[in-house]
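Readers of this paper often ask what the protein records in our data store actually look like. This encoding replaces a full spatial description with a residue-level series of whole-number codes. For reference, a complete record is included directly beneath this paragraph.
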Amino acid sequence: MTNFVWRAVAAGKPIIGVSINYRLNAFGFLWGSQELAANGSANNGLRDQRLALHWIQENIASFGGDPRKVTLFGQSGGGLSIGKQLTAYGGRDDGLFRAAIMQSGSMAEKWPYNIQDPTAYTTDLYNNLTSSTNCSGELNELECLRSLPVEQLSSALNITDTAVFTGTGLGPWLTQVDGDFLIDPPTESVRSGRFLPVPIMYTTTSDEATVFGFGGRVDSDADFRAFVAAGGPDPSTVSTIDILYPDVNAIGLPARYSPTPEDDKTYGAQWKRAVAFHTDVVENTSRRLVLDAWAKRGRKAYSGRFNMHTNGGSPRLGSPHGVELSYLFDSVAGEQADGQYAAMSKLIGLMWASFVVDLDPNNHGGECTFFDLHDLDNAD
């Protein structure tokens, strides 16, 4: 974050950047048994984050910071975590932050979208873990797991093919509705208003899903319907989506990319169709649901969509998940170090800093403008 912080300081909007560590995988999100419910705690990774936020409140003044002006900021998994902090304890305000920036992830993202029974899923994961470590059937399975050498436990957790997306390597251990830190399912928290309605900024990229794995080629109408059905909708919904996302490359994503014969051979003739649907179902739907919930409560909510490419990136990827980070952190290289790429890098850094300092991304002196959904009836 060094370049981002220095750019903000140079623009007269000084900020302090704080990065935090938290437990991942089963170390942070182990769940799946009655013993854990009685003697453990779910969502320990999120609790680690919460503890770090308390530390900031207690100590940031010693670094010249103002504990009343903390803004949470994260992308992808970081955005998911921030969403969970906004709904923590039913949206309770512990005075830990005054605003939040979410990029390609929030509390309303249904991730992994293709797990239809989270309770059964985590139970199976836990049973597989205890079985593979010979802790299954022990009087106290949790203590057995705790007593294992970390190398043995890590080896048992090194799962690469998961129900998230086969072959992606994304870990299978997820946040849980535990009745404490997370009281409701994420989308229910948003719909029922059980969230902390601080000012937010929520951005996605134009072609999020070009870098997501689909678990195989999407080559035909049947392939596309099977891909949609894997997310759990009923047959009627699958049929509706089949109509709403027609097999027309011109309206698929990336919008300005025409697949080559080699692309069709590798990814399937309906790959752009799948990218358009997956970008919406995983990212855009979440963004719109969250921003709409904030706007309905009359709270400040800014929406943004990033549509730039990366230096040397394949045109097939368009503006994929994570593309904005090199711009935000002023790490563009090569041909992007000059011209419009450098200008965009400067602009996006100033907009983010403007939101942190002024709670408005538009006090940056440039030409680009974010929408405040409170002031608009219809906006993307």
User: Anything to note?
Assistant: The chain has one domain: 2-213+292-375. The CA atoms of residues 15 and 366 lie 19 Å apart. The two ends are 28 Å apart (CA to CA).
